[in-house]
Design goal:
Layout lengths: L1 H11 L1 H36 L6 E4 L7 E2 L15 E14 L2 E8 L3 E13 L2 E12 L1 H4 L4 E4 L6 E5 H7 L6 E6 L2 E12 L7 E5 H8 L4 E2 L1 E6 L16 H8 L4 H11 L3 E4 L1 H43 L1 H9 L4 H39 L7 H27 L3 H6 L2
Helix pairs in contact: 1-10, 2-8, 2-10, 2-11, 8-11, 10-11
Length: 415
């Protein structure tokens, strides 16, 4: 009987139900779009933010010491190795060029690094090949904003910072000598470098050339690392004071502190966050998430008001029907159950349509706004579905309350 009454009510008031469904569709589509974008774009935004600088600095564990270059590959063996986008070691000291003291820095420009260990690939049950894993890293990876007027240097060549080039009267193609104590090395200027940072007043060469000149083969004095991280809680976390369960959660979450901790486990160095970059990344991603949730909340509130308006009109038109149902024995719970069931059907239908529209819109927004493909996941779909049902039921509460309060004697008498 209940299902027959429900179906009959929907059949006789298709327009009102359609208006309520439309309200839910609009809210659900916006919610689905923004939640899908918010849950999937953070990683892509994090990668984009990495183009504005590294966020971790490795320094020697003791004063006067150096970091062993041969250990750096171990960063790509930690638990969060896939979050390490790239790194670049540096070895710097002051040299004399044309009777002027200038900082010369050696670094990875675009280096291929081999990760020891055999990595097997299988096709079905058949072994396809065996090969050693390799990665490419260096300033080309972690500092794409470097502007080079000319060519990137090979061995025996150098990038001259724009300020150094002006001060020392060096230009592309020039050959100069860099003196360091009793040693000297000759370099050809392959290009003029502009970064807007300290590098504009330096000379940049390959790490091998700097190690040869300074007599420190296999040594580096710092390493800058670019890693994908998740904003940390406001309070500072000391992993040594965490209970085992919380420690495991912290260790398996890509906080900058947990990634630095894991790097220090495999490399003899002190890891420090480059706070200006790391903090700003976290703040920006948090603000983006809150903006998405705020707009989602506004959209769902508007949908709830739309459902409420449609349901109020429907109840007003059905006052006599409600009065008759009460007169023949229906109680307030049965009346409320009928209207809440209509609202639930509205929420389910509107939510399903809105979610499908939202998935399509999310992909469009991803390509047009962020230049990335947004892949829908189950979690935002479930959240959007629950929200759609919730706003339909919440939007019906006040109209249903009025329906329950209808006095059959007054309505049927015609007063």
């Amino acid at each position: 009987m209940f299902s027959r009454l429900l179906f009959s009510a929907i059949q006789r008031r298709k327009l009102r139900i359609a208006l309520a469904v439309l309200a839910v569709v609009m809210g659900a589509s916006i919610a689905s779009t923004l939640l899908t974008v918010s849950f999937d774009i953070n990683d892509k935004m994090g990668r984009e933010l990495k183009s504005y600088g590294a966020n971790i600095l490795l320094q020697p564990s003791s004063e006067g010491a150096f970091i062993n270059e041969s250990e750096l590959y171990k960063m790509k063996t930690i638990f969060w190795r896939h979050n390490i986008i790239g790194y670049s070691p540096y070895l710097s000291d002051t040299v004399t060029i044309k009777d002027t003291e200038i900082v010369l820095s050696g670094t990875y420009l675009d280096e291929e690094i081999r990760i020891p260990g055999v990595h097997r690939t299988f096709i079905g049950n058949r072994k396809a090949d065996e090969k050693e894993a390799t990665i490419r890293t260096g300033v080309k990876t972690i500092a794409p904003w470097w502007k080079v007027d000319g060519e990137w240097p090979a061995l025996g060549e150098a990038l001259v910072g724009v300020n150094t080039a002006e001060k020392s009267d060096l230009k592309r193609g020039d050959i100069f000598s860099a003196e360091f104590g009793s040693k000297n090395a000759t370099f050809k200027v392959s290009g003029i470098l502009s970064t807007g940072g300290d590098e504009d007043g330096q000379v940049i060469v390959s790490l091998k050339d700097a190690q040869m000149l300074f007599g420190k083969q296999g040594m580096v004095d710092r390493v800058v690392v670019s890693a994908l991280t998740k904003p940390e809680p406001q309070e500072k976390i000391d992993p040594f004071l965490l209970p085992p369960g919380e420690y495991e959660i912290w260790y398996c979450t890509p906080y900058i502190s947990s990634i630095m901790f894991q790097i220090e486990e495999v490399i003899d160095a002190n890891a420090k966050p480059i706070r200006q970059v790391a903090d700003n990344e976290g703040k920006l991603l948090n603000k983006f998430e809150w903006l998405m949730f705020l707009i989602t909340g506004i959209a769902m509130t508007s949908a709830s008001l739309g459902v409420s308006a449609a349901m109020t009109t429907s109840i007003f038109e059905r006052k006599k029907e409600i009065g008759l149902m009460k007169a023949i024995g229906a109680d307030g719970y049965q009346i409320a159950g009928l209207f809440f069931a209509e609202a639930a059907v509205t929420g389910i239908i509107g939510g399903a349509i809105g979610i499908l529209i939202g998935i399509v819109l999310a992909r469009i927004v991803g390509m047009w706004v962020f230049g990335a493909i947004i892949n829908p996941s189950l979690f935002p779909v479930l959240i959007s579905g629950i929200l759609s049902l919730a706003v339909a039921l919440l939007g019906s509460m006040m109209p249903v309350k009025k329906a329950v309060e209808i006095e059959p004697s007054v309505i049927l008498r015609g007063d």
